[in-house]
Design goal:
- It is a multi-pass membrane protein.
- This is SusC/RagA family TonB-linked outer membrane protein.
- It comes from Sphingobacterium litopenaei.
- The protein has eight helices and 51 strands.
- The protein is mainly β.
- The strands form ten sheets. It has a 22-stranded antiparallel barrel. Strands 11-16-17-14-15 form a five-stranded mixed beta sheet. Strands 1, 4, 7 and 8 form a four-stranded mixed beta sheet that branches.
- The two termini are about 35 Å apart.
Length: about 1000
Amino acid sequence: MQNFTFRNSLLFYLFLLLNLFSFSSYASSYIQANSIAGKITDGNGGAVVGATVSIKNSATATSTDANGNYLLTNVPLGSQVVIVNMIGYEKSETNINIVAGANKLDIALISASDELEEVVVIGYGTARRKQVTGSISSVTPEEFNRGVVSSPDQLLAGKVAGLTVNRSGGDPTAGSTMQLRGPSSLTASSSPLYVIDGIVGANIELIAPDDIVSMDVMKDASSTAIYGSRAANGVIFVTTKRGKAGAPVLSYSGYAASESVSNRVNVLSAAEHKAFVEANGLAVAPTETGFETDWQDAITRNGVSHNHNLSLTGGSEGTRYNASVNYFNNQGIVKRSGVEKIVARVGVDQNAFEDRLKLSFNLANSINTSTHIDYGIFNGAARFVPTSPIMTDDPEYAQYGGYFQVVGRTGYMNPVSMLNLRDENRSNNTLLGNFKADLKLVDGLVWSNVLSYQRTHWDKNYYMARTDFDSFALGRGFADRTALKHIDKILESYLNYSFTADLHTFEAMAGYSYQKTKNDDGLRGTSVGFMSDDLLDNNLNLGSLPEGYNPYSDFPHIKESLLISGYGRLGYNYDEKYLLSASIRRDGSSKFGVNNRWATFPSISAAWRLTREDFMQNQQLFSELKIRAGYGVSGNQNIDPYRSIILFGPRDGQFFYNGKWVNAYGVSQNENPDLKWESTSMFNVGLDFELWKGRIGGTIEYYNKETKDLLYEYDVPSPPYQFNRLLANGASMSNKGIEVVLNANVYSNENFRYSTTVNFARNVNEVGSLSSNIENIGVSQRYEGGIGLEGWTGQTASIVLPGQPLGTFYVAKYVGYDEVAKRTIYQKPSGELVTQDQISAPDDYQIMGYALPKFTYGWNNNFRYKSWDLNIFLRGVYGNQIFNATRADLSRLQQANVTNISKDALEEGIFETPLIASSRFLEDGSFLRLDNMTLGYRFNTSQAKYFKQARLYLTAQNLFTLTDYTGVDPELSLGGLSPGIDNRSYYPKTRSFIFGVNFTF
């Protein structure tokens, strides 16, 4: 049924695109045929590629080719205005008198100095770059990360100073974790708020990368406070392609990619393992010898991925349309994993009443189906003895489907059997419809109303075969199905007013917001005891409930919430020299306690453009110099509804009532009527500059970010509390940092250009208090980062401690190895040297390192020579450490007869089995990665009949990584309370080679 949905959806949108294109072409054929030809150049005489050239108040439009040439046909006779639009340049309008036949017009564009004239999106409005008083970073498609991208957020990795985008491993089904200016929560989500074409909280999966025009990242609270309780983690505005007046423009972009494993766990081969065990007098069980198995090779493959995007835009000055369809198929490098996605969008913009009313309608649908694997296969592929077989004909193993297994060994399972005997499929079908009406009431006053409806159907199907080695499924099978629906409804109504008198410009905005959310509306079913695996999880009725299983214990319950807000902003601009902005938002949320459902989020910011001062007019160094400062407060409400009220649920055990044993129910959550938002206040000061008319430019920023009333779950006594855990506010945390962005147009002439951009970010995180705002409830510290290795029961590697950052490694201090005694030596906090059996965890542990990096950086380089273009992008982190639990698990030299070991452990030569978490396994996680390199060629289409633009390109992703880390990859997730732990379940990073095309017709 899923394939049917994909195929028919694709055919429908293709049909719609072709009909729109055919209709527009038919209509344009009746216009009088005369032409304008010419070349669009920049200030240095270089060709401007991809500029939009159109006739004012007409549907006639085109784009410049690889040489900057354009051709407009069917131009009416008489006086006309030729308009040229291109990002980074000022809009050009040129009058020309059209005579019958061919007309020629060359136009030289004026560079918008450091894109100061470029329009950026701010909350409920737009502003020119030079008028911005807050910290906003913009990324355009030319700067996006190229290659196989499963989610648009990956386009930003390394591109924005202070924004960390981590996609741990190469799993195409996994999302990214994002942090802006460091971690700022202990339990709530750190994801930023997405605003897509003005729709607050829209799902980023609804956007195909090829449909994005820009992504604007609001980083400081003076910018984000207008979104109040949802903006503490930053706000990312996504602007998508819209229809433009002019002839229809049909575009296709697509690529095919080959992906392979970039690095593997460095374990012994079968021959190396055999030689080691024989040399050290170890004996491998007879059933586990005689074969040569590369377990990592057995579960991986070379993946093939492809992406196709077809879009159509066009219309007249009064009516404009856009439509697109995107198909993406990413085959994972681990067998049986992958994702298939289709995204379709249509939009119409209509002007009415002499352009006083603008109506916009948009409809987007994303259908995402994915196949998942059990991450336990990675630990199995590393540990399983390489001389063991994958399959065997021995009748003893028929109950396991013919897969070789070792009975009685805990945590030791054939990874290929796990891969092939477990099925997990998920699907997401998200629909977003929105309508916007902008009404110009009087000059300068616009009333905007936005209605949006977003619905997601989420399904998960999971099945473990009857031959699965897991005791829960062995001999009976196990099936689990979940189907949920999420609905989000939003109404936004706001007024924007602007007024200019002489050198004074005033702006004001006021609005109201209503958002109602309903999540987890659905069902879950679980069953065991199947007679056959043929139907997998498609008929739960063929099985029965597991013994002792309460079907309502994990049953999804509907979560409804309501957010009502009022907001406003005032702005003042004197001669584009002195800029001032202030905003306030009042939010009321049903998620929080009855005593704290309303909160206020203010902000104020100012900027001084020194280059507008008289005393700067005679200097030649600075073409732009602006000082900005701002302060604001924003919040975080990323928790489930009903966390403030008392909840009842199933409890352990049963009781005898009315002749029957009845499941016990009781309090499963304490109430907290004082539960409220996490609140983040931030002071930000920035310097924007450009030298030598934009030859060199950049930004330097300092911020101080303080978060209080952090949500944290505390242990509480029962009684007086009815449950032993309580979610409360009170903890605090701070982040302070510096961000630097430098860009330079190094060299430019008619044939060759080289530009480069470097970004640097330094953030210092510190946990403040862990005490709650409820008397006598709090903790002095908390141990996190459970490892779970064999023999490491209850051990952790991290600590949450006031005065220290998140990701503080708290382990035993490793001193060295005594070759004579064959014992590892450790140092207690007192200075006493002891062996590992004398270490008491965690009492004898110490702070030994930090998971958060000292700084991150990115370096982007663009070259263009005639029709060729080359982009090279490097990024990295420095100063962080990783606890390599994978290496610890593979360092059991004395147990090499029952498990594989790493080559690093072999070189280390320590024969004592590690049984404690220690600094021995802390490694430098710094790295420099050549993340992306793209070589492209633009064809000269000036004489082509059907092509307006044509480009071919080759891209390589993750070409190499320079690092001292010995694990699979140093890029781990930095989210949560225990970041930086490589704990045996790392989906391998991929190396990709891509061939792609971009065509415009």
